[in-house]
Amino acid sequence: MSDEKVREVDFVKNPDKEAMEKLRRALPQLIELEIIRAKVAKAKYDALINEGFTAEQALEMCKQPPS
Question: Which of 26, 30, 55, 65 has the least C-beta neighbours within 10 A?
Fold first, then answer.
C-alpha cells in the first residue's frame, strides 16, 4: 500500500483535528464547487440534447470523464 493510501486510511480511522478544521472552513467553497459542477453537467446534457442526441445517449456521454 502506498504511503498516500496509508495516510488516507489513518485519517479515516483517526482524523487529524487540524485537517478537519481546514475542511470545515473550506466547506462553503466545496459546496459552491459542487453547485458549479452540477450546472456544467446540466449544460452539457442540455447541449447534447439540443444537438440531436437522445436522452439516453446524452446521459451516457455525461457519465464519461472529461477528456
Answer: 65
CA pair distance 38, 20, nearest whole angstrom: 25
Host domain of residue 16: 3-63
Angle at CA of residue 29, ends 4 and 43, nearest 5°: 100
- Say which residue the cell 456544467 belongs to: 40
The pTM score is 0.66
Largest CA distance in the chain: 51
pLDDT in tens, 15-50: 788 888 888 999 999 999 999 999 999 999 999 999
Domain count of the chain?
1
